[in-house]
Each structure stands twice: as structure tokens, then as C-alpha cells.
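hey
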């Protein structure tokens, strides 16, 4: 009887630990099947992909941080277990709240929101120095951001979003290449 009680206590303890410590992980992007939850466009396995997982385990992927923000506006944030962005330089997944962001409406992003993600402030500052434009932001700053798409960038992308295939995402990041 004592053995059964010990096993029962251990099992209950493990269940409690599992329930309290749910770990969320970013999932890989599969360009063959992943479609942005908001704009319904193909998600490239690049530095602009973002995703979130709800507390009930549902994963939503986006081709641009602006699309993820739109999902949050439509669905709220209270049920988000974790949200992720990718580092611009090495595509490593970063927790949304830990990333540093650079914004300028002339920066080319898939849906023309002009926000690029970095794992640290130093990398973001180097990007601004290289591009000649940009403003450093944190997750708290994005909460008050106006989230408008750049009309000039959308026109350059035929109004449909997504950079053309011949436009490499790490070159000519700004509308005016003299910023480089």
C-alpha cells in the first residue's frame, strides 16, 4: 500500500510539473506548405518569418512581423504562449520580447512594414550604420507603433507584397540604394 501511495505521489508531482512548465519552441519553416495566417502568402524561410504558439499548442506562422501584429490585434495576446521573430543576420529564432528591432518605412520587408529583427542592440546599430536609416525599437515600443505599410514599398512590389525573386533580402534593403 505504501508503494502505491509513493508511485501515486510521484505521478501527480510529474503531472503538476509538466502542466506548470510548458515549453514552447519555434517550429521550422517549410516553404512548400507554410502560408501566412493573415495575408495567405507563401512564407519564405528567411529573416522575416515570424510565428507564435498559443497556450493550447496551436502554431501560427507569418511572412512579416506586421502580419503577426495584425493577428494579435484580431485575437488578443492573452492566449499566446510564446511568439518568435528571426534574427536578420543568422535567421536564429528569438523570443519576441527579447529581440531588438529597427524600423524605417524605406526598409524592404515582405509586406512593407519596414521592421527588421535582431538578437541584440549591437547588431541593430550596425545595421543602421550600414543602411544609413532606421530607428531602434524594443517590443514595448512596437506596442505603440502605428503599423502602417509603406505605400512606396507596396507599389515597388506590384501592390501584392513580397520582394521579387531577383531582389536579395540582404542587399538594397532601402528604397534609395544610396543609403547603403
Amino acid at each position: 500500500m505504501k508503494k502505491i501511495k509513493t508511485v501515486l505521489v510521484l505521478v501527480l508531482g510529474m503531472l503538476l510539473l509538466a502542466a506548470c512548465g510548458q515549453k514552447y519552441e519555434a517550429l521550422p519553416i517549410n516553404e512548400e506548405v507554410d502560408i501566412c495566417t493573415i495575408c495567405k502568402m507563401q512564407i519564405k524561410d528567411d529573416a522575416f518569418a515570424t510565428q507564435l504558439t498559443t497556450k493550447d499548442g496551436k502554431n501560427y506562422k507569418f511572412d512579416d512581423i506586421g502580419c503577426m501584429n495584425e493577428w494579435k490585434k484580431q485575437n488578443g495576446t492573452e492566449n499566446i504562449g510564446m511568439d518568435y521573430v528571426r534574427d536578420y543576420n543568422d535567421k536564429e529564432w528569438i523570443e519576441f520580447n527579447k529581440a531588438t528591432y529597427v524600423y524605417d518605412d524605406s526598409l524592404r520587408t515582405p509586406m512593407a512594414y519596414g521592421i527588421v529583427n535582431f538578437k541584440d542592440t549591437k547588431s541593430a546599430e550596425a545595421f543602421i550604420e550600414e543602411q544609413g536609416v532606421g530607428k531602434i525599437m524594443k517590443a514595448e515600443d512596437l506596442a505603440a507603433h502605428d503599423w502602417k505599410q509603406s505605400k512606396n514599398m507596396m507599389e515597388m512590389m506590384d501592390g501584392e507584397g513580397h520582394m521579387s525573386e531577383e531582389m536579395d533580402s540582404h542587399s538594397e534593403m532601402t528604397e534609395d540604394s544610396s543609403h547603403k
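Residues 2-20 form the longest helix (19 residues). Residues 68 and 74 are 10 Å apart (CA to CA).
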